[in-house]
Design goal:
Structural class: mainly alpha
Largest sheet: none
Shape: globular
Strand content: under 5%
Number of helices: 10
Number of strands: 0
Distance between the termini: 44 Å
Length: 291
């Protein structure tokens, strides 16, 4: 990475991280609108990359549906209230895509690719980021939502742990990495970097619980449990990063977009989080149920 790119990344992080924390703390429709906008941008980038490979997604429909999934989570605030309307949206968009393909993509417009890319982009961007809203309002054991501070700490845990793990992977890989992880997918990633990323995510998740989350926020979510959760999160983050690399390589682009200086597009910035945020929600709910 060039020094100018690194400086741009640091500048964006200095401004963006406190701003994002403040938005998550504020919650409500302000948080929902911001995350819905990010989901829409990511869906648009996904459809753009799909279009570069010959597909022709129904972009406006997919982008709108991705944002709608996040807004449904903002309205429902719990998985139980969110799940059924979200499923209805996914089914409706799928059927509408098939209907549009009959007139707009048949016979030579790759109808199957158009439908699959539209639906996949909607779920990849909006369906995953909706879980950030659900984490912000995750009920405690007594059914009462946590305080704004606790909800913010819970929602930012997968974000902080993922980005810290990614930083550990980057710097360890540059310093000591020699053997490539999957060179045909991402030439810059090394085995040493992958291991450092896992360790960094585990340590970061444990420290996050110790510093920002009290024992009553999520029953059973202590230091050891956080470390155990951190391991699959670290693996999922790297899979998410590699999956985005595959998409960009197929589309023949370096970045998914030009949203932020030094960071590329929304997918470049959130690729790992598309995997770790919903995974963390599932794991933390499982921990609460077991406790």
């Amino acid at each position: 990475m060039a020094k100018s790119d690194l400086a741009a990344r640091l500048a964006v992080a200095v401004v963006g991280i406190p701003l994002m924390v403040a938005i998550i703390y504020t919650g409500g429709w302000i948080l929902g609108a911001v995350i819905a906008a990010i989901a829409a941008l990511a869906a648009n980038e996904f459809n753009g990359m799909a279009g570069a490979t010959g597909g022709r997604p129904f972009n406006r429909l997919g982008v709108t549906a991705a944002a709608l999934l996040v807004l449904l989570a903002t309205w429902g605030r719990t998985f139980e209230a969110f799940a059924l309307p979200a499923l209805a949206v996914v089914l409706l968009v799928t059927l509408v895509c098939f209907s549009l393909a009959v007139w707009r993509r048949w016979p030579d417009g790759h109808p199957a690719s158009a439908v699959s890319a539209t639906v996949t982009g909607m779920i990849y961007a909006g369906g995953t980021l909706a879980f950030l809203i659900l984490l912000r309002y995750l009920p405690a054991a007594d059914g009462v939502a946590p305080t704004a501070a606790a909800g913010t700490a819970l929602a930012t845990l997968p974000m902080g742990a993922t980005w810290i793990g990614d930083s550990c992977a980057y710097f360890a890989g540059r310093a000591w990495g020699k053997r490539k992880l999957i060179p045909q997918v991402s030439p810059g990633k090394t085995v040493v970097g992958g291991i450092a990323g896992l360790v960094g995510t585990v340590v970061a998740a444990s420290l996050w619980v110790a510093v920002f989350l009290g024992p009553d926020t999520v029953p059973g979510l202590g230091l050891l449990t956080a470390a155990v959760i951190g391991l699959p999160m670290g693996a999922a983050a790297q899979v998410g990063d590699l999956a985005a690399s595959v998409l960009k390589r197929e589309a023949g682009v370096k970045d998914s977009g030009r949203l932020l200086p030094g960071h590329g597009g929304a997918i470049d910035r959130f690729d790992a989080l598309f995997f770790t945020i919903p995974l963390f929600y599932v794991l933390v709910r499982a921990v609460g149920l077991l406790a």
